[in-house]
Amino acid sequence: MATLRRLRETPRHLLVCEKSNFGHDKSRHRHLVETHYHNYRVSFLIPECGILSKELKNLVMETGPYYFVKNLPLHELISQEFINTFVKKGSCYALTYNTNIDEDNTVALLPNGKLILSLDKDTYEETGLQGRPSQYSGRKIMKFSIEESVMMSYFSNYQIQEHQPKVSLSTLRDLQCPVLQSGELQGALEVSCSALELFDWLGAVFSNANLNNEPNDFISTYCCPQPSAVVAKAYLCTVTGFILPEKICLLLEQLCHYFDEPKLAPWVTLSVQGFADSPVSWRENEHGFRKGGEHLYNFVIFNNQDYWLQMAVGANDDCPP
């Protein structure tokens, strides 16, 4: 019965919200993007927009490629040839694929050259390495993301496949959107919604949930927070794959320039989800799955260059930086 109760509990998470301006000298938006290494999905939402600009569309279509290497021995990642060819040149990312972080052995290569091993007890003892116990109860294919086409030739002795991210473009019509004010992170009664309310609303939009709270809807009883406004069109773009932080930085920069010319939209959002079974979230902070495996962040970009930054991880992870 205790196990059933735990399964029925809503997964908890830690959410950190802050506000700043892209023009501030101490703004840390770029650092937060660059140190969230293993990104699975990127989505941006633009209210009052029916057609994507050429600049944004080109960035979206140039996100890939990335590579799958099957049955790659771990020693390949610490060979001098691999280090000279990829690691010393910087920006090489790798992550085991189709493994469960709380049960299986998991490996991640960070762009600073560090190799993170999350091992079960037996494997750890066999390696003879010095490490520290995971805070999680438990502990195949490698997935790479690098800009050099030499990856295909380097791993030609293994089963390697090149993949392109999957891109989904859609126009949402008559979308009820929360009213936001950049200076009111907590919201203002009957004036604007809070960052937390927006965070929940975005999750419903990305899940394609009904936002009307209709009495005959047995799937979702959620409704848009108030105050809100209905926009005739909103553009939603989602990219799924293995996405480099450098690509996300370019996309964030382009979205900041969206307001260089007057727009009807008062804000746009950029949301990034990490791989649920990555052994780290930000930097080298340990990450586990437990009930959700979430580690993600969201930017709300306002037309005055203010922004909100929301970072979320599971309740057992370290607090986001």
TrEMBL record:
Q: What PANTHER family does the database record attribute to this sequence?
A: RIBONUCLEASE P PROTEIN SUBUNIT P40 (PTHR15396:SF1)
- Its protein name is Ribonuclease P protein subunit p40 isoform c
Pfam family, any one: Ribonuc_P_40
> What domain of life does the native source organism fall in?
Eukaryota
